[in-house]
Amino acid sequence: MLHSHLTTLNAVSLVLSTFKAEGLPSEALLAGSGIRAADLSRADTRITTNQEMRVCANAVAIRREIGLELGRRMHVSSYGMLGYALLTSATLGDALRLALRYPALLGTLFELSLSLEDGAVWFCAAGYRENPQLAVFNTELCLASLKVICEDLLGRPLPLLGARFAHPAPDYHARYADNFDCPHAFQAPDNAFGFALHWLDMPLPLADAVTHQAMAERCRKQNLEFTGRQSWLDRIRQLLAAQLHAAPGLEGLAQQMNCSPRTLRRHLHDMGCSYQMLLDDLRFERAKLLLNETEWPIYRIADTLGFSETASFRHAFVRWSGVSPSQFRA
């Protein structure tokens, strides 16, 4: 099953603003995600990774190389409290090590690390577990945005020694030079960019010990709250995932969570989702798994997911993915 966790609206908002200049309505990009335009005005709204990926898939369908452009626009200010903590760190190394402590606040889909190789530092992104069809997009977005963050912190360009990507070179690979002015390697063992070791000790122009200490403490508390809400959501997903054939409904799920339906509904709303959105999310994940890894007929998959009619499942799958189950399987 695909991994799904809570994240912020940063990437979604960036996608919408990028295409707004071209006159593309937000409804086209939000289609199938369950995200409403009204949700974008709430700074504390949380969405699932699958919702974010639905918006990104809509964007990639319009422009395949959009990950590179979005990465260039994902500045350190996009990360709220964590962004301020990074900016006020003493050195670039201090800032990057702080960022690695809070992957939940970064909203990354990768496991990030710093490694030393032949006297150079490589900022690595590994462990991608989301939609494989968006792996190239997410890699481009991740590495491009990490480079932008480094340059925002330094207040100057960061000279790169090289960049490497696990995927084959796309047909638009010449555009990589706009983000990575260095030698490129494709079909590499990992995704990373490298720079000289001395940059880790470079003092940051906005360093402020007092402000940094206050922001770092707020990041710690925010991370505890965020991961606590994630654990609660994971428990809900586990319960629902085990009952897709006969979903318990909001009232039944609340009873299993030992809370009232009203409390459950409020908590889900605070996390930017609903019972139906989570159920659809899990059904979509399971449907893709069954379509890819089994030869079950469509009617059997529909029944397994709790649909009383095969036609209802087909309509739902088209809403989720933009294609029919048989087209997805093909």
Automatic annotation (TrEMBL):
Organism the protein comes from: Pseudomonas weihenstephanensis
InterPro entries given in the database record: AraC-type_N (IPR032687), Homeodomain-like_sf (IPR009057), HTH_AraC (IPR018060)
SUPFAM superfamilies linked to this entry: Homeodomain-like
UniProt keyword annotations, A-Z: DNA-binding, Transcription, Transcription regulation
Pfam families from the UniProt entry: Arabinose_bd, HTH_18
Residues of the HTH araC/xylS-type domain: 234-330
Entry protein name: AraC family transcriptional regulator
Listed PANTHER family: HTH-TYPE TRANSCRIPTIONAL REGULATOR GADX (PTHR47894), HTH-TYPE TRANSCRIPTIONAL REGULATOR VQSM (PTHR47894:SF1)
